[in-house]
Specification:
Elements: H1 2-20, H2 25-30, E1 37-38, E2 52-53, E3 59-65, E4 68-75, E5 78-86, E6 96-102, E7 107-114, E8 125-129, E9 132-139, E10 142-144, H3 148-160, E11 163-169, E12 175-181, H4 185-195
Antiparallel strand pairs: 1-2, 3-4, 4-5, 5-6, 6-7, 7-10, 8-9, 8-11, 9-10, 11-12
Length: 207
């Protein structure tokens, strides 16, 4: 009898822990959630890393702007500001668009698409915003603009557009066609630019 009681108590404790244990930030990122997701720094077309999870309490919200969210945090003592949105979930996968300011390093408007699945390195990805298309190079799960001039142009189109989409090819030769709403992108861009003291005068103008 006592043996049965002990087994029942142990089972109850294990079950309660499994049910109540919160999902970690890493798990949230891997399943496509944007909780605690922060952008990695782009190094070069052959050396890039994926967005990662911020340590709890290190990321601060600048607000939610319709379909976009804006944040800032410290990276090696330097201020980083970014905006992020997600695509509708397809086949248990959600992708993200990010735009990041790192003013101390002089890196502004860095655009990043994270597919949340490995992309083919043999083909480009293509970002379309209201009919204008930009070629992106791929690295692991990510796609980036080729240089800062393209980043700046993408920032203008993102902050004043209506809809964006990304076409890409996975390493398994599956086609990706993700769509993103740009509602709130202008307000999100103004929020990160103000926080990082970046001149946003061209936001909204198609250069």
């Amino acid at each position: 009898m006592y043996k049965h009681i002990i087994i029942c108590i142990c089972f109850s404790v294990v079950f309660s822990f499994a049910v109540l244990r919160p999902v970690s930030a890493v798990s949230a990122a891997k399943t496509g959630g944007i909780d605690n997701l922060i952008p990695e720094k782009q190094k070069s077309s052959s050396n890039t890393t994926a967005p990662k999870s911020a340590a709890p309490g290190t990321r601060n919200s600048l607000g939610v702007f319709s379909d976009w969210q804006a944040y800032y945090y410290q990276e090696n003592g330097q201020l980083v500001c970014y905006m992020i949105t997600s695509s509708p979930k397809k086949n248990n996968r959600t992708s993200h668009l990010m735009l990041t300011h790192r003013p101390t390093d002089g890196e502004l408007n860095t655009f990043n698409y994270n597919a949340n699945t490995a992309l083919s390195s043999k083909d480009h990805a293509y970002l379309s915003i209201d009919g204008t298309t930009f070629n992106l190079f791929t690295a692991k799960e990510n796609a980036w603009a080729k240089d800062s001039l393209v980043d700046k142009k993408i920032a203008s189109f993102l902050s004043s557009g209506q809809k964006a989409s990304v076409q890409a090819l996975t390493i398994k030769n599956s086609n990706i066609n993700d769509t993103f709403s740009l509602r709130g992108s202008m307000a999100a861009y103004e929020a990160i630019s103000k926080k990082c003291q970046v001149n946003a005068k061209y936001a909204g103008s198609k250069m």
